[in-house]
Amino acid sequence: MNAAERFVRVCCEIGNFTEKLTGVSVVDAYFGPEELHPKTLSAEKSTTDLVHDIHQTFDALCDEIDDPLRLEYMMGELHSLNAVVDWLSGKDITYSELVEGLFHISMKKFSENEIDKNIELLTDLLQSYPGDSLHDKIQRFGKEGEITGDALQHLLTDELQKQSIKIGQEFREKIFTLMGASVPDNGVQYEAVRDVPWGGYNWYLGEFKSLNQLNIDRRFNKDNLQSTLYHEYEHHVSNLWREKAFLNTRNLELAVVPLHTGRCVISEGTADTAKDFLSVSESDSRIVVLNALTPISQMTGINAAILLNDEGKSVEEAIEYLINRGYRTREAAEASISFISPTTKTGKINLFAPYIFTYFIGRRDFVHPSFLKAVQKDVLPEFFKTIYMNPYSGSSVTWNKAFEWM
Ligand SMILES: [Zn+2]
Predict the structure, then answer these.
(1) pTM of the model
(2) Which of 227, 255, 277, 335 is 20 to 30 A off residue 389, Cα-Cα?
């Protein structure tokens, strides 16, 4: 068994391990050979065996992988998966050690001062908007864009498919043309789901197809929905290129897409920067407001996760914080809790509890500043080629090295 095979095997077995313990596999997508598919591999390995396999894989990678970026990428991913196993096997690790171990970023609370600055910005934008207070204005703003009833039905059965085809075209016309390259795309199917901890999810199915699910327990707002569509479509696009790279190189590790690694920081970062990549109209005043509201919502979401997981605060305290400082409705605050809470409703470990950091940090510390630099230096074609055609750039561990040329 070569190093890449070992890597895929241990990744998929860890996926089976996390699925057994939490109900969620860390293997988010797989499009490799059948004999290494998670379904055909063991779901019964002990943590001792898994850790042993991880260490053997580390040694094999060092011996066999020559490309330094590829090696660093794979080592980083494996370190993260090792942290997943340590965490779920009950090792005594703090939340901050966990976030750092998984994502190679530090767990930092945002100061109330920093949040206040963002609130001031939003207050200015909404100055002439009707309402007694900022809370009131934001609630009205949300209500105004809300989609319910027949409109929601039409949206789910018809409109989303059309919008996703349009976004696919935008990627081809504005980005792939710049890159002078193309990738097969068999499209995205939309599906409405309930009783899940997230708002939207891109399931990459392989063979250049995705299933995007939207959680209809949450209230739909046309502005947020637009952001979600771009976000999820970018995940699809990024996996299209990954699958193409896998078919071209036959580098097995590209066929497995793990959650909870340095890859996620960049993946969520590029997804959250997709609207910037495609210069989606900022002349729309609702988008301007939404863009000012989003960082407040993301920063307070991260702070609430720290309250719950690191500071031992109660769910009710976290909800109050999300309402008071994040300007959420109680309903939205309660919905956010299911993603960041240490345990699920059924009392299992919530695998997503540390995940919230990836979005904001991925965009702010990695993808967005590099994108701005590429615009300023007039090197967007090379920038997009690095992101989409070099899959080993896509990790918080390798990002800076991959962009050294810039
Ligand atoms: Zn995402």
Answers:
(1) 0.94
(2) 227
